Amino acid sequence: MDHIIDGKKISQDIKDELRDKVSELKKKGIHPCLAVIQVGNDPASAVYVGNKKKACAYTGIESRAYELPEETSQEELLELIRRLNQDNTVHGILVQLPVPDHMDEREIIHTISPAKDVDGFHPQNVGSLSLGEEGFVSCTPAGIIQLLRRSGVEIDGKHCVVVGRSNIVGKPMAMLLLRENGTVTVCHSHTRNLKEICRQADILVAAVGKPRFFNADYIKEGAVVIDVGIHRLENRKLCGDVDFENVEKVAGAITPVPGGVGPMTIAMLMNNCVESAVRMCS
After folding, report:
1. Residue 23 covered by a domain
2. Domain tally for the chain?
3. pLDDT tens sequence across 216-271
4. 146 and 203 assigned to the same domain
5. pTM score, two decimals?
6. Could you say which of 15, 21, 52, 158 is catalytic?
7. 52 is catalytic
C-alpha cells in the first residue's frame, strides 16, 4: 500500500481499461454515448463539462453536448431530457449541477431515466444501492471504493468513519462501505465527540466541505485518510478538508488534493456510461 494514494494514476488505469472495452464494444456495433446538458455559463460547471468531454474523447465514448442559455425554462429542459430518455443511441444522461435558481433540481433528477442515470442520483438507483441490487452508484463514492481496492486497502471488518451525510457523497459512501463488509459510522454537523470518533477510524472519509478541517488530532496512527473536499485558498492554491501536511505524518495512507479523489469521479462516470451501453444492448 502506497503512503500517497495516487488518484491520477488509478483513474488513468481505469480509463485505459475502458478505452479497450469501448473498442471491443464498437466491434460488436455498440457505441457508448453520453449526453451532457449544461444550463447557463457557470465557470466551474464549464470546467467540469470540459473535463468530461476530454475523458469521453480519450475512452472513445461519444459525447453530445447540450449547452442551454440561462433563461431556458424548466419545461424546456425536462422535454430535452424526455427526448434523450427515448433515444436508443444515448446511454447516459447527465445534467451538470448546479442549475439556475428558477429550476427544480429534484424534478430534473427524477425525470432522467434510471437506466441512463449515470450520475447515480435517481431515487431508484439510490434505492437499489441500499438493497444491494443492480443500479448506478454516485461516481465519487464509487471512485473511492476503487481507490481503496486498487491501493490494496482492506475494507472487510475495518471501522470506517464517514464525516458528511450528503446524498451525493456521504450516504452512498456509507452504503458502499457496508457492502464491502466495513463497520460504518456516519458523522455530521450534530455529532458529538467528533474528534474521538474519528480517532477510532481505520478508514476515514472526510467530506465536510471545510478547508483543512481535519488535523492530526483527528487521525489514528496508521489510518487510511480519504479527502473528498476541494477548496481554493486566497493564495489560489487548492486544498482539501484535511490538513495534508499535518495528517500525512500519522496516516498510513492518504489521498492528496488535487490528484486524489477528484480524477476518480470522472473515471467512474465513464465507467457507468459504458456499463449502461452494455446493459441496454444485452
Report:
1. no
2. 2
3. 999 999 999 999 999 998 888 999 999 999 999 999 999 999 999 999 999 999 99
4. yes
5. 0.95
6. 52
7. yes
Instruction: Confirm whether 119 is a catalytic residue.
Output: yes
Same domain, 194 and 102: no
Please tell me whether residues 147 and 39 are part of one structural domain: no
Radius of gyration of the chain, Cα coordinates, nearest whole angstrom: 19
Rounded distance between C-alpha atoms, residue 136 and residue 94, angstroms: 13
In the set 6, 117, 119, 202, the catalytic residue is 119
- Which CATH number characterizes residue 105's domain? 3.40.50.10860
Instruction: Express each pLDDT in 12-71 by its tens digit.
Output: 999 999 999 999 999 999 999 999 999 998 888 888 899 999 999 999 999 999 999 999
> Nearest to residue 51, comparing CAs of 273, 272, 282, 264?
264
Range of the structural domain that residue 84 is part of: 29-114
The answer to whether 27 is a known catalytic residue is: no
Q: Report phi then psi at 100, rounded to 5.
A: -55, 160
Candidates 96, 146, 158, 241; catalytic one = 96
- Percentage helix, strand, coil for the chain under 3-state DSSP, each rounded to 5: 45, 15, 40
